[in-house]
Amino acid sequence: MVAETTHYEAQVFSRDAALGTRVNVNVQATMPDDVGLDDAICHDLNRDGATDFVVTLWGHGNGLGASFYDRLVALSAGDAYRFWVLPTMDPAAGDFVTFGQLEPIVLVTRDFVQLRDWPAEPRSYLAYDLWVFRGDGVVPANSIDSRFPKFVRFTVKPNWQPAKLTDDDKRRLASDPRATEAIP
């Protein structure tokens, strides 16, 4: 089954009053009519005193495809909200970590990447990236910890050890972390 782009609309309300405008949200799903809401988190992620929201959406799939999710992030922006979509694999509450006062809330995402060096067999990895919440934006933050981006070889046996890769391999494997802003 091939993933299709599914369109949703999102908006934040407080006591029946809309906070900002409704936005279009596009997510990849193998069963477009049945995207699952997996969980939701409410917290002041960008430290502006207002509650922010993260909703996890599962697009279905089989095998490895069942691991792919989107996280819809609603960040407070004055009297409105801005929305961001971050793809990840197998999200969990433990993906929200702290790095002390410098970056009190950091989100870790995972992506599946492959290194294809013909004639060698392709090698698969999980790429881990860091994100921070600044103002009303979601910003890549691998620079706050020298271990990121982190690459772990994807094998049949469970594996958590960082892969031993050259700097050139790391550049070629870079997962191109992306946060897509949802547009009104």
- Helix tally? 1
Question: What share of the residues lie within helices?
Answer: under 10%
Radius of gyration computed on alpha carbons = 17 Å
Structural class given helices, strands, pairing?
A: mainly beta
Tell me how many strands there are: 14
For the largest sheet, list the strands in their spatial order.
5-6-7-8-14
The figure for the number of domains is: 1
Morphology call: globular
Order of helices and strands: EEEEEEEEEEEEEHE
The biggest sheet amounts to: 5 strands, antiparallel
pLDDT averaged over residues? 83
Give the CA-CA distance, first to last residue: 30 Å
Which stretches are poorly predicted, pLDDT < 50 over at least 5 residues?
Answer: none
Describe the structure in brief.
The protein is mostly beta strands. The chain contains 1 helix and 14 strands. The radius of gyration is 17 Å and the shape is globular.
